[in-house]
Specification:
Elements lengths: L1 H28 L1 H25 L5 E3 L2 E3 L4 E3 L7 H13 L4 H32 L1 H39 L1
Antiparallel strand pairs: 1-2, 2-3
Helix pairs in contact: 1-3, 2-4, 3-4, 3-5, 4-5
C-alpha cells in the first residue's frame, strides 16, 4: 500500500509540475509580460553583467540588452537571461508538497543560484567571444545551457530531499 501511495504522490507532483510549467510559460509569452517584466529584467541583467566585465577591465557598455565593446558585442535574449531556468524551478518547487516557508526559501535561494550562474555565463561568454571566438558557440549552446539546466535540477533535487526530511521531522 505505501508503494501505491508513493506512486500516486509522484504522479500528482508531475501533473502539478507540468500544469504550473505551462501556466508560467503561458504568462511569460503574453506581450505585456514580455514588455513589462522580461525585457526590464533582462536589461537589469545586462547592466550587472556589464558592471562585472568593467570590474575586470573589459571597458564595455550596456545598451538595452546588448553588452558591447569595440571588438565584440553580445545580446542577451530570452533563453540567455535565466528566466526559463527560474520558471522551471518555480513550477517544480510550487508543485512539490512542502510548506510555504520552505518553498519561499527554496525559490529565493534557487533564483539567486540561477542568476549567479547566469552572470558567470554571460561574463565568460563575452570573454570567449572577444578572445576565443571559435569557442563561443560551443560554450553558448552546449556547455552553459547544460550547466545551468543541471544546476537547476540538482538544486531542486537537494531542496526537495531537504523539504521531505523537514516534513518528516515535523510529522514525528
Amino acid at each position: 500500500m505505501p508503494a501505491n501511495n508513493d506512486r500516486r504522490r509522484a504522479f500528482l507532483f508531475i501533473l502539478r509540475f507540468f500544469a504550473l510549467l505551462a501556466l508560467v510559460y503561458g504568462i511569460s509569452a503574453i506581450p505585456w509580460t514580455e514588455r513589462n517584466v522580461i525585457v526590464p529584467f533582462t536589461h537589469a541583467i545586462t547592466i550587472v553583467s556589464a558592471a562585472a566585465l568593467n570590474e575586470i577591465g573589459q571597458h564595455v557598455r550596456a545598451a538595452g540588452t546588448v553588452i558591447g565593446s569595440p571588438s565584440f558585442s553580445v545580446s542577451i535574449l530570452n533563453g540567455c537571461n535565466g528566466v526559463e531556468a527560474t520558471m522551471f524551478l518555480l513550477a517544480a518547487i510550487l508543485a512539490f508538497p512542502a510548506g510555504w516557508q520552505l518553498r519561499i526559501w527554496g525559490l529565493a535561494i534557487g533564483f539567486a543560484l540561477v542568476q549567479l550562474l547566469n552572470l558567470l555565463r554571460i561574463v565568460t561568454l563575452f570573454l570567449l567571444g572577444r578572445y576565443q571566438p571559435q569557442a563561443f558557440e560551443f560554450f553558448h549552446l552546449a556547455v552553459w545551457q547544460t550547466l545551468i539546466a543541471a544546476a537547476t535540477i540538482f538544486f531542486f533535487l537537494r531542496w526537495s530531499e531537504n523539504a521531505r526530511r523537514d516534513d518528516g521531522a515535523h510529522a514525528a
